[in-house]
Amino acid sequence: MDACVRYTPAAMKIALIGCCAGAFIMPLLSTMMNLALPSLDAEFHVGSKALAHVNVTFLIASVLTIVPVARLSDIYGRKKIFIIGVVMTIISGIIATFSPTFEVLLIMRVIMGAGSAAITVSCIALLTDVYPFERRGWAIGMQSTFVYLGIALGPTLGGAICEFLGWRYLFVFMMPLAIVSLFFLLKFKEEPVLDTKRRMDYRGSLVYGLSILLTMYGVVNLPNVWAICLIAIGLAIMVIFVKMMKRSEQPILDVKVFKYKVFTRACVAAFMNYGASHSVAFFFALYLQHMGGLTPFTAGAIMFIQPAIQAALSAKTGSYSDRIKDKRILPTTGMGLIAIGVFMIIFLKITPNFYYIVVILILLGLGYALFAAPNTNAVMSSVPPKNRGEASGMISFVRQVGMLTSMGIATCAIVMIMGSKDSLFDPTTWEQFIQVIQVAFTICFGMCIVGIITSWFRGKDQRDPNECP
């Protein structure tokens, strides 16, 4: 199908509704699970390091599948891959509801992560294909709004469900959303930018997967010596993967896409952004319920502040990014606000100051709203149509790797400072937990500074000369 085709307003609306409903599912489940962590600890008797794997397994699976899924969406179509991702999420959610052990729950989180990758990659690429350049930022902003709406409602709904029904009911609430998403995507008859000449690079997929698995598994298990060895091996295999991609006629990832300066530096900024701030929800969920003595519902209500701001402003900032001439201003300002919020977290005390926490959440919410949609718009608009599947996959990749790195920093700090005594049900461990927060977010603040510099010096070449008018 011609990449320059103009879709009817009705078709654009149907695609947007389907994408927004699908985009709402995974962040909702992710943020809900943060409020379920103490409940999981109480039922399965695992420590805070093991609890971190509820998010870590999800993220590793997502990172493993993002690049292959992006390639598949170029070959077989965005819509097909999107639908497969939703179906995987439904099946894994049903099984997770009846998890007899913590290990079964983690396996289902792996499947959810793969489904999430399929949804996220195909969603952004689909909207980029369907919406013209002058409305693309608005469409991506609307999609980001629903992502943040899921993040916003997750703590409140998750806290209420955990408190009054139990954590197993968390997965039930995604079913209506999945049905709505499937309905509209099936109603969307077009299949944009379907490249039947491209083929799947299975060997490249295997090498990529092995590299990511070893590297990320090593990151989340630092500071052990064997973890460092895994990282070194994984990175060495990644070098081999890049060389393979340069020689391949049908690469799973066209590394030439990195010649676009805006694309490359915006991806680096996204990695630093999510790497610096993703673990905030993990730490705050534990901090507010244990040291703050709050119920899951009350803790969720406080954590609602940050994503609620993101949901309220993302569509507006995305739309504004279509009109503003200097595309660096919005995302760089957002990174600056996130840096201030992350810096303030370093000074948390055992006795919470809830007003102080609210200020942090407001800053983070404003920062994310200014950064996410404008930065994604810059990434997707900086490459030609033939590379949009890869660009969508890469922005999802760096976001998920950033999130995983953030959780890796968290678990590494827990192991180094708390060791095996990582149960927060024991008040004698709280002082050590505060030290964990201080160490983790000092590192994260440094990542924010790098992100600010990279974001500002990304360049101004926003639109590809071959872009459709």
How would you portray this structure in words?
The structure is a single chain. Helix 1 (9-44) runs antiparallel to helix 6 (175-187) and helix 15 runs antiparallel to helix 16 (430-456). The mean pLDDT is 83. The chain has 16 helices and no strands. It is mainly α and 469 residues long. It has two domains: 10-188 and 252-456, MFS general substrate transporter like domains (Growth Hormone, Chain: A, Up-down Bundle); 201-251.
Q: Could you say which structural class the secondary elements and strand pairing correspond to?
A: mainly alpha
Instruction: State the helix count.
Output: 16
Radius of gyration computed on alpha carbons: 21 Å
* CATH architecture grouping of the largest domain: Up-down Bundle
Kindly report the CATH topology of the largest domain. Growth Hormone, Chain: A
Question: What string, H for helix and E for strand, traces the elements in order?
Answer: HHHHHHHHHHHHHHHH
> Looking at the structure, what is the overall shape?
globular
- Strand tally is 0
CATH superfamily of the largest domain: MFS general substrate transporter like domains
Ends distance: 17 Å
For the record, the count of structural domains works out to 2
- Percentage of residues in strands: under 5%
Helix content: over 70%
Q: Compute the average pLDDT.
A: 83
CATH C-level of the largest domain? Mainly Alpha
| Unreliable spans | none
Largest sheet: number of strands, sense, barrel closure? none
